[in-house]
């Protein structure tokens, strides 16, 4: 796949296609690279320890083989792909791995990961299922346990100053992502969804400082475009979990749509919420990762007492993005076997109706093999709303 | 919508014990009890889940639990889940999700739409709750999503979601280093539950009563452990088929005198059978462990099929949701809420210390190894239910780890007299595949072919050892 890019996006494409290239180099230089899956892993603590957080990715082009000899096929297909690539030593440069309680697939496969990969460091971060005062306290303690375990592994104390600095630099990263999203507000957008997802995916394979620098270059390049290279078309929001392969977004854009925003993990879910820079850093991280990350895995109580009030509370970010980015339609893209998202489909459908945003719901299996079927459905949807 | 689709009535499974045979009417009685309680309006009824260690709180505040997983299981066992599953699918819910939850949501949506029970609802149907207690656990995602999805169709029914984490086994971490803050959190969660139920019922918690109920549960836990350990006897007096019945008092009737009395009777019955040398099967040839997975509720007669081949199941990991309290070394406390939280942590970390001592082990594997030895097991059977990640992910890996110990070649060990002994430890395994209640995933012919082949493997291993 080549988008024939130059400058920053050429670098992005290199890092995207040879995912982990830079982490491999850094590992050779003696740096510790810590792999993670899911938006719930507090990256700031890894950065504060002097190690480099690296988001483990799957591949929709690689058939799952070895992974299936160790893990059941009823696991979320995205996660199975991440596991499969890992046990095939695609990420052999990792020094360790962190898995959070993001879903049952993660919890129940923790042993297979920790025994299946020859890594000297493994840690599980327990994430509360509710968001209230007691769960924030508990999560703060759990983050301190993670902090101590990394201190033991790296042989370096993680001070409050280290954490404050890591929060600052990760917040900068989020500001830059937000600035990239701003370029999607024009019609047509100045940056395509494909370019943006590729950029964010590439960024998650780099030390945060290098990611910041890459995003700066991308910002400068997009700003310099003046006119959009894209054509006007239906403005689409992608709603779902992690979409770290660009094919779906590329497909929408090939068919004449413009993906202008999302709720996906390696999109707004990971990058929009910032940690508070003042006060106790562990409290700030507990608050960011438990309260501000809007994942269906976290149960949010129905304070309104009505269904309409409840869905506004749970999915309000969708409405905000739909308005902010002037969305014409949305694609709810859910992986088979994903319980947290799967159970929300009926309520999300109603929410989109309340927004008057047409919705296409797709259930998929994280495989390039399904793109043909998706093409037909997406084409019909775009024609309908276009 | 195929609302009229119903499968043929399943063949009734033969039980080995009188106690197991008495369970059906007991379940029917408490389903009917929930309907009656709702009609009379004297007692609040609440949806909830098993294995939350909160039954004592329910009962102390006179709330009648409606075990929604149980009702879905009944629909499955009666081969009458399909019409509710299809209704859930029509709402946009994928068949790949937990089918207990799909069945429950489909049922709820239908009942709310009709303003009454769906036609021919199994055993009178699932009552509309006054409130719902869901549970976000490290155990199961659908537990915090199911009632939230159902609430779309009954928005006036409030939910309290109780968070009950436990530390996951990590080889380089002693769980006792972290469990004090786990305990503090669980206590707060349980106190929050008490406050919520007090508000719903307008009753105040009687902590003396709660203490008595907690004590009753503790005694029941120990009694169950003693009772189930009797199944180590050769021949085995009670198998897993029966245990899929006797799971009812463990999981749905805890903190009641009736549950305690049930196990007093079962223990007596098993002791008598042992004295008479009476096994689950007449000529016990093989002793198998049900090593993981919830059963296919519509196909429990498969256990009889195993029995017909001379195979008995002295032990199962499924639904044995208790452990001997005297082996847990829990901190002393007079506060029943604090004790419930310690018991929760004690149960989930029960195998951690043993697992840490054995390279390559982890708690689920350690339990398998211990029970293989204690119950003299010849083979392991698991069931992979496609719709449930909670109990069914990790099973393949566990069998991998077991295979490193129970190798298909004779191994030499140092015997008690200090001399080398040749030991055969090969332990074949079988994974059956279908679902908990979705009968469309099940093929009786394929399942029984697999069982035949597995029994063939057991026979050939035995013949090789004898040669």
Q: Which descriptors would you attach to this protein?
A:
heterodimer, A: 386 residues, alpha/beta, Rossmann fold, 4-stranded parallel sheet, 17 helices, 8 strands, 50% helix, B: 467 residues, 12% strand
Chain-wise SSE layout:
The complex is a heterodimer of chains A (386) and B (467).
Chain A: H1 8-17, H2 21-28, E1 33-36, H3 43-48, E2 52-55, H4 77-87, E3 96-100, H5 104-108, H6 110-116, E4 121-125, H7 133-154, H8 160-182, H9 193-203, H10 208-223, E5 235-240, H11 247-254, E6 258-262, H12 265-271, H13 281-292, H14 307-324, E7 329-335, H15 339-342, H16 345-355, E8 359-364, H17 371-385
Parallel strand pairs in A: 1-2, 1-3, 3-4, 5-6, 5-7, 7-8
Helix pairs in contact in A: 1-9, 1-10, 7-13, 8-10, 9-10, 11-17, 14-16
Chain B: H1 18-21, H2 23-40, E1 45-48, H3 55-60, E2 64-67, H4 68-77, H5 82-90, H6 99-114, E3 131-137, H7 142-150, E4 159-164, H8 179-201, H9 207-229, H10 240-251, H11 257-276, E5 286-292, H12 301-308, E6 311-316, H13 336-348, H14 352-357, H15 363-374, E7 379-385, H16 395-405, E8 411-414, E9 420-423, E10 429-434, H17 444-466
Parallel strand pairs in B: 1-2, 1-3, 3-4, 5-6, 5-7, 7-10
Antiparallel strand pairs in B: 8-9
Helix pairs in contact in B: 4-6, 5-6, 6-7, 8-13, 9-11, 15-16
Cα-atom radius of gyration of chain B: 23 Å
Radius of gyration of chain A: 20 Å
Number of strands of chain B: 10
Number of helices of chain A: 17
- Mass-distribution shape of chain B: globular
| CATH-scheme architecture of the domain at 21-162 in chain A | 3-Layer(aba) Sandwich
* Termini Cα gap of chain A: 28 Å
Helix content of chain A: 40-55%
Low-confidence stretches of chain B: none
How much strand content do the residues of chain B show? 5-15%
* Average pLDDT level of chain B: 94
Q: Indicate the structural class of chain A.
A: alpha/beta
The oligomeric state is heterodimer
Structural class of chain B: alpha/beta
Task: Estimate what percentage of residues of chain A fall within beta strands.
Answer: 5-15%
């Amino acid at each position: 796949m080549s988008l024939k890019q130059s400058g920053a996006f050429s670098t992005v494409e290199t890092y995207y296609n040879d995912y982990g290239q830079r982490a491999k180099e850094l590992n050779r230089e003696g740096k510790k690279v810590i792999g993670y899956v899911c938006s719930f892993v507090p990256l700031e603590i890894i950065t504060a320890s002097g190690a480099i957080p690296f988001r483990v990715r799957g591949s929709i082009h690689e058939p799952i083989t070895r992974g299936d000899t160790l893990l059941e096929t009823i696991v979320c297909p995205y996660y199975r792909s991440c596991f499969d690539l890992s046990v095939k030593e695609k990420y052999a440069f990792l020094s360790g791995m962190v898995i959070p309680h993001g879903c049952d697939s993660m919890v129940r496969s923790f042993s297979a990961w920790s025994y299946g990969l020859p890594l000297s460091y493994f840690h599980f971060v327990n994430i509360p299922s509710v968001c209230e005062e007691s769960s924030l306290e508990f999560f703060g303690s759990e983050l301190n346990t993670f902090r101590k375990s990394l201190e033991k592994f790296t042989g370096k104390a993680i001070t409050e100053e280290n954490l404050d600095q890591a929060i600052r630099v990760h917040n900068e990263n989020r500001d830059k992502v937000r600035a990239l999203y701003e370029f999607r507000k024009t019609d047509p957008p100045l940056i395509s969804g494909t370019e943006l997802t590729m950029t964010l995916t590439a960024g998650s394979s780099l030390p945060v400082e290098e990611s910041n620098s890459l995003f700066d270059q991308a910002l400068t390049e997009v700003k310099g475009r003046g006119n959009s290279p894209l054509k006007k078309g239906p403005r689409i929001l992608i709603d779902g979990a992690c979409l770290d392969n660009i094919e779906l977004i590329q497909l929408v854009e090939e068919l004449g749509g413009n993906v202008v925003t999302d709720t996906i993990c390696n999109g707004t879910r990971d990058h929009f919420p910032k940690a508070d820079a003042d006060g106790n850093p562990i409290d700030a991280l507990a608050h960011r990762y438990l309260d501000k990350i809007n994942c269906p895995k976290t149960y949010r109580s129905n304070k309104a007492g009505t269904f309409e009030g409840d869905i506004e509370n749970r999915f309000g970010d969708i409405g905000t993005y739909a308005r902010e980015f002037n969305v014409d339609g949305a694609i709810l893209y859910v992986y088979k076997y994903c319980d947290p998202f799967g159970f929300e489909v009926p309520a999300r459908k109603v929410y989109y109706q309340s927004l008057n945003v047409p919705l296409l719901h797709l259930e998929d299996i994280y495989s390039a093999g399904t793109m043909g079927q998706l093409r037909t459905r997406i084409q019909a949807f775009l024609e309908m709303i276009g | 919508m195929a609302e009229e689709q119903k499968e043929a009535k399943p063949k009734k499974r033969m039980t080995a014990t009188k106690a197991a045979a008495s369970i059906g009417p007991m379940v029917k009685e408490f389903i009917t009890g929930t309907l009656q309680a709702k009609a009379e309006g004297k007692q609040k009824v609440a949806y909830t889940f098993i294995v939350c260690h909160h039954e004592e709180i329910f009962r102390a505040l006179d709330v009648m639990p409606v075990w929604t997983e149980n009702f879905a299981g009944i629909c499955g066992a009666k081969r009458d889940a399909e019409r509710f599953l299809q209704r859930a699918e029509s709402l946009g819910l994928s068949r790949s999700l937990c089918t207990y939850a799909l069945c429950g949501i489909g049922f709820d949506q239908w009942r709310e739409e009709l303003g009454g029970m769906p036609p021919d609802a199994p055993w009178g149907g699932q009552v509309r709750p006054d409130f719902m207690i869901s549970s976000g656990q490290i155990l199961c995602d659908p537990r915090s999503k199911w009632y939230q999805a159902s609430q779309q169709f009954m928005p006036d029914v409030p939910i309290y979601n109780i968070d009950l984490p436990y530390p996951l086994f990590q080889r380089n971490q002693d769980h006792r280093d972290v469990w004090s803050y786990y305990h503090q959190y669980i206590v707060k969660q349980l106190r929050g539950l008490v406050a919520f139920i007090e508000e719903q019922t307008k009753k105040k918690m009687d902590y003396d009563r709660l203490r008595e109920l907690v004590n009753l549960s503790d005694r029941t836990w120990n009694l169950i452990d003693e009772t189930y350990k009797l199944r180590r006897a050769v021949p085995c007096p009670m198998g897993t088929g029966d245990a899929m019945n006797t799971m009812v008092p463990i999981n749905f009737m805890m903190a009641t005198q009736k549950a305690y009395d049930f196990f007093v009777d079962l223990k007596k019955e098993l002791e008598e059978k042992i004295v008479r040398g009476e096994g689950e099967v007449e000529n016990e040839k093989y002793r198998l462990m049900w090593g993981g997975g919830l059963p296919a509720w519509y196909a429990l007669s498969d256990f009889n099929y195993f029995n017909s081949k001379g195979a008995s199941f002295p032990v199962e990991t499924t639904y044995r949701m208790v452990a001997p309290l005297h082996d847990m070394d829990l901190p002393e406390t007079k506060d029943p809420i604090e004790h419930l939280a310690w018991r929760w942590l004690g149960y989930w970390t029960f195998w951690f210390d043993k697992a840490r001592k054995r390279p390559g082990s982890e708690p689920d594997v350690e339990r398998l190894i211990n029970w293989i030895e204690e119950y003299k097991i010849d083979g392991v059977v698991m069931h992979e239910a496609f719709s449930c990640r909670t109990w069914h992910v990790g099973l393949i890996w566990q069998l991998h780890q077991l295979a490193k110990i129970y190798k298909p070649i004779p191994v030499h060990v140092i015997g008690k007299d200090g001399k080398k002994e040749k030991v055969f430890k090969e332990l074949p395994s079988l994974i059956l595949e279908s679902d908990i209640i979705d009968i469309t995933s099940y093929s009786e012919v394929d399942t029984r072919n697999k069982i035949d082949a597995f029994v063939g493997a057991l026979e050939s291993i035995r013949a090789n050892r004898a040669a």
